[in-house]
Amino acid sequence: MAGAAICARGLVCAVxxxxxxxxxxxxxxxxxxADLSQRLVAITTGFAGTDVLLFGAVxxxxxVVIVVRGPDRPVTxxxxxxxxxxxxxxxxxxxxxxxxxxxxxxxxxxREIAPDVVRTRHEMGVDALRLxxxxxxxxxxxAREWRRGLIRxxxxxxxxxxxxxxxxxxxxxLFRVELHLPANVPTGAYQAMTYLLKEGRVVSAQTMPLFVxxxxxxxxxxxxxxxxxxxxxxxxxxxxxMAGWLAHLAFRKG
Length: 254
Description:
alpha+beta, 2 domains, six-stranded mixed beta sheet, four-stranded antiparallel beta sheet, 6 helices, 12 strands, flat
């Protein structure tokens, strides 16, 4: 059954890629066409992460770079130091915007595809992300330290890819790559950006939305806790007290 499922998925991918290639040929002005196997990732109870297939086709020769990033959010970093024998937060810094998730895949090593100026402009790679701090609070050297700390923390949590993914070409025009979303992936509207580069220049690009959302009972609880934090806290306390009282009765009868 597993083998049949894999074969079926491969067949669907092949058919979709052929259809994509046909679209490219039908519209010569478009040198790049890409799509996702799914546009909605539903987080339910027991969600353990998932893989999303991105596939497409190019017209002519070129190199492909794919970047998937989650919604930008402010991030506050803390630095711990030893004070009187106790580790405590002694400094903090807030980045105004940082992607909540980041992954990149390329058809060749990124530095062979794009010069630094192109990588910086399109934020290709974690080292090219624009993670800015207020200049009044952080000198360039200090900002680099905080920036490295933020990237390291996100990579350790699995939200920033530690390695660049590899795009597989099927022939000269069709390509595909599987992108992994971990169990702790944040919710929100993501962007899957596909770039076609020739001689170090971006000649075509396409952006596709990808939505990560909680559904079912978990979504209701999350939404209630967010909108009515005080009531959620009181309910949680009441449930804990009730559970403790029932456990006390059970042990007393035993």
